[in-house]
Amino acid sequence: MVQSAVQRRASSKAFRRCSTWNDRLRTFQSVSGSSAGEAAASTTLQSCGVIIDIDLNGTAPAVELIEPHDCKRFHVAARGGDSIVLEATLRAHQLGHLRPSGDALIATAAVRRMAEGRVPVGWDDDFAAMLQYAETKGWLDDSGAMIEAHVEWGDEKSG
Q: In the chain, where are the structural domains located?
């Protein structure tokens, strides 16, 4: 699909207005003509997205992948603890690590591992579309093996 300069500017503005992975990926798909994930998009508009939920309260951190089938939104949700404990938990669970900015770099293989057996047929295509979009925004590392995720701290964060 060849775009004019006007179309590129309009699509860039649309990306900036989108506040969720869901909106951003739908915008990307409509601009790029991509159809990956369109069927899933209609059923996941109200779900909370691919979230790596980390509860740092208690003696052993609990890590869970929430809504793995929704590849339209992605972030790390952390409760309790602090960035030092979160960093240690990400590394101990072979999920990734924190950047100096406070965002996380998450191994795409870890997301696949956590989603295995919990996602429908076609999920690999949806996840690949999410990674393709992330690459256009500079959210993948140079190897393509790590994706940047913002960290949303719950009310119980101590530092």
A: 5-153
